[in-house]
Amino acid sequence: MSFRADIEALRPYLLRYASVQLRNREAAEDAVQETLVAALSAESSFAGRSNLRTWLTGILKHKIVDAIRRSSRERPLEGVDGEASAEDLEALFDKTGHWRDAPQAWPEKALEDKQFLQALDKCLAMLPARTGQVFLMREHLGFETGDICKELGITATHCWVLLYRARMALRECLEKGWLGR
Amino acid sequence: MMISCKEASRLLSQAMDQHLPLWQRARLRLHLAICDACANFSRQLKLLRRAVARLYD
After folding, report:
1. Do A116 and B37 touch (CB under 8 A)?
2. Number of residue pairs across A and B with CB atoms under 8 Å?
3. Which residues of chain B have a CB within 8 Å of the CB of A119?
4. Tens digits of residue pLDDT in A130-144
5. B interface toward A at CB cutoff 8 Å?
6. What pLDDT digit, counting tens, does each position of B1-56 carry?
7. Looking at beta carbons, which residues of chain A come within 8 Å of B48?
């Protein structure tokens, strides 16, 4: 296969990757397109590297960050994403501050469980758009929270709350969707 | 003074992103020592981190 065909074959994977983080089909397609164009013009810099998908994903991550930066400039945070206080999470605790649904012990082998990873993928997609984005910027792209705040133009406190909210929602979603079956 | 699960969960999330002051870590450790639910929550957060890191690889 030619280099171009090899790259083209990875388009669906890249598109799914970008869609999860950007929550916007058009923006995801743009980011992937830019990635493929950049990759084609940089074929010589790939030479000798072992994994094409890893290399492409590395380029795509930069395009995703660019897209997030652009969209956060254009649109402020809406709905629950715009809530800088964690009041909505109070409902998960009783009056004395105890969990209403106590977190369970998850099996260690969850990481090897395909169903767990599939459930996680679904749960991520159910998060409010920005909340999911911030969570993935932190946990997948590996940004420091200070950099996330700066990129999105939000306060540090707001950033903590979005991450807290994402984690609380994910663990609850996983216990219902994966552990609870 | 004991912190609540609500407070502990918030601190545990924050601890995933920044280094907490010593006194907060001490209060957390005390809480985790006697609270299975929050100890589970703490492990869940770490597992989530490892899972998300490898989700698309």
Report:
1. no
2. 91
3. none
4. 899 899 999 988 889
5. 4-7, 9-10, 13-14, 16-18, 36-38, 40-41, 43-45, 47-57
6. 689 999 999 999 999 999 999 999 999 999 999 999 999 999 999 999 999 987 77
7. 120, 139, 167, 170-171
- The question of ipTM being above 0.85 is answered as yes
Burial of B1 (0-12, 13-18, 19+ CB in 10 A): exposed
Q: What is the tally of structural domains in chain A? A: 2
Instruction: State whether A14 and A91 are in the same domain.
Output: no
Same domain, A34 and A119: no
* pTM of the shown model: 0.86
**Burial of A53 per CB tally in 10 Å (0-12, 13-18, 19+):** middle
Instruction: Please indicate, yes or no, whether residues A16 and A96 belong to a single structural domain of this protein.
Output: no
Q: What CATH number should be reported for the domain holding residue A59?
A: 1.10.1740
* Burial state string for A55-72 with b = 16 or more CB within 10 A and e = fewer than 16: bbbebbbebbbebbeebb
